[in-house]
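Input for the complex:
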Amino acid sequence: MSNPMSAPDSGPALVARSVAKRFGSTQALSDASLEVRAGEVHGLLGANGAGKSTLSRIICGHVGRDSGELLYRARTLSPRSTREALDSGIALVAQETSLAPDLSVLENIFLPELGRPGRLSFPDMRRRASDILARLGRDHALPLDQEVRRLSAAQRQLVEIAKALALDADLMIFDEPTASLSPSEVDRLFDILARLREQGHALIFVSHRLEEVFTVTDRVTILREGRTVAASLDTARLTQTDIIRHMVGRDLGAIYATPGLDRRGGARDPVLEVTNLSARPIVRDVSFTVHRGEILGIGGLVGAGRSEAMEALFGLRPRDGGTIRLKGREIALRRPVDAIRQGIGFVAEDRRAQNIVPDLSVRENLMLAHLGRHRGFGLGYRQRQDRVDTLLAQLGLPTDRMDASLLTFSGGMQQKIIMARWLLIDPEVLILDEPTKGVDIGTRSAIYRILRDIADQGVAVVVISSDFEELLGVTERVVVMSDGITIADLPTPILTEEKLTLLAAPRSSTTRNRALLETLAREHGAFAWWALLEEDSLICLGTAAAATAPPLDLRAGEALHPRDTPIPRALAARAQGIVTDGALATLLVPLRNARGHDLGWIGLTAAADTPLPDPGQIAAQVRRLTRDSDDIEGDAA
Amino acid sequence: MSAPTAARPALPGRLIRTLEVRMLGLALVIAVGLSLMSPYFLTQNNIFNILDQSVVIGIVAVGMTFVILTGGIDLSVGSVAGLTGIVLGLALRDLPIPLAIAAAVAAGAFIGLISGVLVAVFGLAPFVVTLGMMAIGRSLAYIFSGQTAISGIPESLSAIVYTTVLGIPANVIFLLLLYLAAWAYLTYTKGGRTIYAVGSNREAARAAGLNVLGYSILPYVISGALAAVAITFSIAQILSADPLAGNQMELDAIAAVVIGGASLYGGRGSIIGTLIGVLIMVMIRNGLNLMGVSPFWQGTAIGSIIILALLAERLFNWRSAR
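Predicted:
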């Protein structure tokens, strides 16, 4: 099975026609079709809950289909188990969920082999694993004998990828493989995908990150609410707007219910102020403030410690430092009930594991936070009944199914019930961790509208999301976390997905750029900085200053209007040479990585009377120092 | 994708979907079957017999229900009963009856507290902790008793069994009141709902601010205390405290709770179901005795009926899940 299909076989490698699948009361797929050729990267797109993952899992035999046709190399494919799918040459790179945490990296890479009869040769496996990791360029970053539970999210993702490569399957499905990778790791993965494509493998790339889709795919198929709405379109002929229209079935603006006026923030009262919160080893230094009536976003990559920080704040995880102020008063939150009694609500990320109590009715699930807060022997349900009725009406929930099991509800309805659970305690602050995960698109926009309403009623809302588009659509301000540290606090209007991606990159993966800044500052007695630059904004990503450098008021994670900096002329000019602003001389050099991605600008500012070296020489130095800047030892720590 | 608004099924359909109703049906089927096989089964005398025989196991099963609802298990109830029986026997030598009973119950609660703390605070597996307690309890029972049954229990103790109210013996009345109280507690109080929530999804219960720790420990305390209460009624009847008393009582109690529809994973089960489970267990044993079935065969019969009941339940759930 390890021979990729020969090219002359011109028929599609995989055909899915009208596949349908139902989970309980949720119709996950109703009419999904897909056609993938050998030697292409086929994008499978769709919003959260569109059915991308379900279709992938059906193809790979993780779940069965209710109806529809599946042809693999012109033969009907009905994998009853993952084993059968693997044997016919189909492999899935899942979202880091299919690893055995207690086994080593090596054993995980060859996990599918453990299911085969016969003897295992560990020396042979070790050799093959080293080969695969070398192909990934990560042989130094993934110790083969390490237990998987001790790996970072990015490392686990790499193990998933290596596992699929070890199978050398003809058809590989990559299900959101980039969710926890840094930009340079993403680039490397794309190189591998390109190589696999040239070798004649058929690749399905599942994603909702449009930038990546344009970089890597040849054709795309778009799902919406379980249906294929656009089949096998050539990526080259599409625009982002086309794809978004297919994905959401309407214009993007309509999904996010953000009134334009309120987004400036203005001088509102701070409600929750968190300073230097730490819960080692994951949460190291988290500070942020959220105001009355504001929706604050917490952005970052998977594994940056966002959920953990909020859990520590809420008392679900031991803290070892930091202060929390609610309306100016310092509060001690040791257990969740303390937070709840202070008026903080928390919708945790994993609905099934952290929110739903399956054996209690919908009503009791809704009442659960009330019950936690309630002081008394009885239940106190009756006193809250009026408020429950109001909330159900407000959230558009049925009132006649309160005694059913919450598990019979769709993901979106479940999420609304959980939100109602917290609204019932009339919170001052409501924290929501990935509030639209696994929620269908219709409910998603309803949830955004609810969030807006809650904020307008004066609640301070904090939204954690890995979906940058969602963050940009919903929030007024975004705090970015990376490696357990809050590194930026920026108003949403000046942000884009690309900027967020750069800001969210693990700090460890930018060590080289920071070393570059320090070298430049030291060698030229100047203030060196790294920033994203636009007409009307400058977002600083890092700085380094020599002792003799002129003081420049620029800090990492800060955004400024160019005219508010001491060097407006230099920023406007972006010339090849040195530009002086009064007593300051500035040199700007664009920064690009090996694949030519725009990484912003490196700036060097010195007193006008200190001679800056030849601009060409600096540019060459930056190029030389950044040539390998994507070869990052990021996660070796 | 909004979930379909399923029409409410008609009343008979709703009833048959209630586990307690199905189990009550099973209990009636067994009762009818046994009365056909033995004419003596349905006499008033024998019905009182069945209720009387239900008291000890029924009391223990209440505590076991609490523990199983949190997802735990208490294998030590039999030994705790044996040990607290000895405590009662010894205490009765020096103390008045109420104080002696209080001492025995306190001893049972204390052992439950230790188990509960080990399980909830230190995160040890309930199976292992209570298995250890089971061995310790039985061993201490032998040591404290000097390896022989303690006789000379004051006869006035038997009043707690043989006093009658409206012709119903006190121990049966106590059993019914206990079930009523336990049912009300589990259904209408914060603590009771917390026990369900903890067993169903500990993480969610914690995140909602419920006192997960406290209500993980409490069921073991209740279980230990009720084991002592149960053995008190037993001693009151035979007027002797045997260190071997309560042997294998945990198996009957667990079986009754499970027949009553509780899930050993926690979160699911009811006190009414447990009462029905107790009655089914006692009826079968009583019926087999009436028919003169050898005690050696009774284990096989009871074991088979438990397994068949669970199997039928699982098949029913598979069918209705479709």
